[in-house]
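Posting this for the archive.
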Amino acid sequence: MKKMRRIFASLLSLVLILSTVACSGGGNGSGENTNPEIKGVGDMVVEAGSEIDALAGVTASDAEDGDITGMIVIESTPALEFKNGKAVPENAGNYELTYSVTDKGGAVAEAYATLTVTRQTGEAVVYKQFDFNSNPTIDNKGWNVNIADGVSASGELKQGAYVFDITSPGEGDGDIQLVKSGMALKPADYKVKVWAKSTENTYAHIIARDENADEWKSFGGAFNVVIGQEITPLELNFTAEEEGSAEIMINLGKITPNPDNPDDTTPENFVVTIDKIEIYEISGEETKTPVFTNDFTAANENDVIVSAGDGASAEAAIEGDAAKVNIESYPTDGGVWSIKTDIALTDITIEGGQKYYYNFKINTENGQSGECLVESASLYDACRVHFNGFSAGAGEEIEVAGVFTADVAVEDPVIRLQIGNPSDGVTSNSIVIDDVVFGKVEGDLETVKTIDAFTAYGRGTANEANPDYPWMTFNGTDEDNEKGVGTIWNENGSFFYRIDQGAPTDWLNKLICGYSENPLTLESDSYYTVEITAKADKNVSCGFFLNPLGNWDPRLSERIDFTTQEQTFSFTTTDTFVTDMDFEMLFQFGSDETAQLGEVTIEFSNITIYQMRVN
């Protein structure tokens, strides 16, 4: 509403200016009168009963009349009485300020700001200061290190991972191992994904040993798997025909894939880091039946509809047997949700409890990432059944696909692409969409995924519900997105978040304080200031949000630019709560820039929350 009022006021001002210019004789000898300009206007926050100087730092100038700052008029909605730009608002709330100035030729300039008036409060007191000096318990998730006698190597849990410091790899692959015994099996297919990296390229064998066999026997193995210097998943697939148990072995000792080339072998003096190990148990069968397809050969302008906000401009059309979205400009203020592209699912009703799938092709002129949602065309996230992400390089055709079970019914579903943040240097784009398939999934196929992460924080750890450790990460790969890997730990009085693999979408590299099992609870009738002191080993940016659990309604929404020099950031809420509320404090790092950084570590030396109680 606020933005619409400003747009209307701007249009009215433009009409007045054009009318004045056309009717006036001008003041510069050319028959034209230059528009005046107002600078320095910005949003403000003040406590009720305190004086605000709305003209501080504000100037107005005109090419013909020079400095006309003294002619600025300020109007407020709700009304405030200004004298020489100063006012004392007594009531808390948001005030929309309109600055206007008229030059001698009659041309008008306007500028806008929001004045937020908070309730009167007492002194700020420390509400919560996070202690990063403690030593929380780390669960090894059943994985243990085996080092053969005489081998110069070590393996230990540290820095949120299993870290192997290998001076010499020994004489055989089993001389250095990470092993998990007693893994229960049922008749099913299994997949093991080891997310690992090494300071020098090396090899690994990943083997599933049958613990119930009378003699040494394996279910299968992945041999001579390369561990590179960037974190990647090393994958083992095997099948169990009956119930039993397996021992999973990750062998990092001496491996020479080709005996005729002894130089191609495990190196010396290197470090292997394993962030997490994912285990999939896949049983049953399923069939996919399409209920809707669209290859856009029969042009219908309603098949794809685009809406753009926050200063963006975009339109859609059916061209060359495909849907085409032309983005003329990206948002000047906003985020990934600013440009919405709706792919119509005509005559489809989504049933609650039913499993569905979809896939379609995207080709982008310039690199683009965004969100892919299945939700109500009219109700948006109030009736959403699926959330996904996508990322395509310049000129690259990708397939966007997803499988989900609808938790509610949707009568007017669309596949909605939310596009806003462009790749670095991109100002416009063209996106082609084709071969849309949407259908039902039937059968009893079940995939159970277990994530063994080696951090002391978050769900599934010994500290899951400990209010002193309300931290966790969310990685895109945790939900089988293509990218997003990171971990957290504390050391020497600081808290560290290491992004081992950046992702192009913000929610795929996320540091979180507060979640359903361990919320960040803030008391009612108070304002809060969050103070953060941190640095990073590379310049990196994130979105910072203080958001109520279970709903997207951020009470703080800021950008933080971390640098290699330690900085302190401070953000204060501007509204209070009727009751105590549970929050999540989010640091969302994913972006095209983050994805190109490689490994980056952010060190937090202090995070303190201050409370100001309302008088």
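The first strand starts at residue 37 and ends at 39. Confidence is low (pLDDT under 50) at residues 1-29.
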